[in-house]
Write a structure and sequence with these properties.
The protein has about 350 residues and is mainly beta. It contains 1 helix and 29 strands.
């Protein structure tokens, strides 16, 4: 069972320009790297990649709109860091799509500058990078940087005949740590629909997932919190009468993942309970040195579930300790201290493909 504790790392905004920028010629989704399909379970799946041609790392957010008969489905997703001159693939499942012929509009991209101390990890393109008969690929990555990398994952654009973009995959191994100069093996499997169609993979490596800041309106006031996940959280709302937070947790990957949510402490006696589709599920609660609560729980493979978290007491302290972090999205000039490191619990939230 994996439990991630989030503390503070360095995220620097550029001293000039806006903190949040719209898509530009340097950050975009190429027309040949966006597609959609219905997976083996009949779930509408959107795949693509954000291309970063800037000279600095970015944290992109994509807005996806789908015309589904007489309704529009519109959702936003913040992706992991895209390093300079690299892509960051995405794969998002929409089980709320009900028609057989939905229309996908081209996603819009916004972004903010990412951390400047990004890790230099590369896929080793040699005879060990192999596409196997069952359609999956395996190979090695190497840390070319001067410091260890944690929570390393390999994403890939999967191409079929005539270079057609058909899927997005992610490594199945748990690569917890990669020392400078160290090599480790990875493997990526496509959706079962495409096992006989795979021609080649375009691979990209990232380190630890970003801690994503967000907020909801609670008792007519802004309530800030943060989360970290290898999936996506959407439709986040706070219900004052029940004193509970709800959202949809979506995991598009074919392996178990996790969500770790960080709340400001309202009292030392707080006890959070996590419900999935109305049923209580196993979760881990802990408190870090900054007196911040962490609530972590599993996300099942290729799942989309409504999550409810109860245990909130009052919002008198809901702004304490988080305000500086959340200036990331509202001020044009700043240097913001933030950070991540993980403490694994031997028994708990299951393996995650980090």
């Amino acid at each position: 069972m994996r439990h991630t504790v989030i503390i503070v790392d360095l995220v620097i905004l550029f001293a000039l320009g806006l903190a949040v920028q719209v898509s530009s010629a340097e950050v975009w989704i190429p027309d040949n790297e966006i597609s959609s399909y219905f997976d083996g379970d009949g779930i509408y799946t959107v795949i693509g990649a954000v291309k970063n041609s800037e000279k600095y790392p970015i944290i992109p957010t994509i807005e996806i709109k789908i015309q589904d008969v007489d309704k529009i489905i519109s959702e936003s997703y913040t992706l992991p860091v895209a390093n300079p001159a690299k892509d960051i693939p995405f794969k998002i499942k929409f089980d709320q799509v009900s028609s057989k012929n939905p229309i996908l509009e081209k996603p819009q991209v916004t972004f903010v500058p990412g951390p400047m101390d990004y890790t230099d990890i590369e896929v080793v393109y040699d005879e060990n990078l192999i596409k196997h008969q069952d359609g999956h690929t395996s190979g090695f990555i190497v840390n070319n940087g001067n410091s260890p990398a944690y929570g390393v994952k390999v994403y890939a654009l999967v191409h079929g005949k005539d270079n057609k973009f058909i899927d997005v995959g992610k490594s199945v191994e748990s690569i917890e740590k990669l020392e400078p100069g160290e090599k480790k093996e990875f493997s990526i499997y496509p959706d079962p629909l495409f096992t006989t169609q795979v021609n080649y993979y375009s691979c990209f490596v990232i380190g630890d997932d970003m801690v994503i800041p967000t907020f909801v309106i609670r008792d007519d006031k802004r309530f800030d919190f943060r989360y970290k996940t290898e999936g996506y959280l959407t439709d986040i709302k706070f219900y004052d009468e029940e004193n509970a937070l709800t959202f949809f947790a979506r995991n598009p990957w074919p392996m178990k993942s996790f969500a770790n949510i960080e709340f400001p402490m309202e009292s030392e006696s707080q006890k959070f309970v996590v419900y999935q589709e109305g049923r209580e599920i196993e979760s881990i609660q802990s408190r870090n040195e900054q007196n911040t609560w962490h609530v972590a729980f599993d996300l099942e493979p290729q799942s989309s579930k409504q999550i409810t978290i109860s245990g909130f007491e009052s919002n008198e302290k809901s702004q304490t300790g988080f305000d500086a972090y959340y200036l990331l999205g509202i001020i044009p000039v700043a240097a913001i201290i933030a950070g991540i490191f993980a403490i694994k619990k031997k028994k708990g939230l299951g393996q995650t493909p980090s």
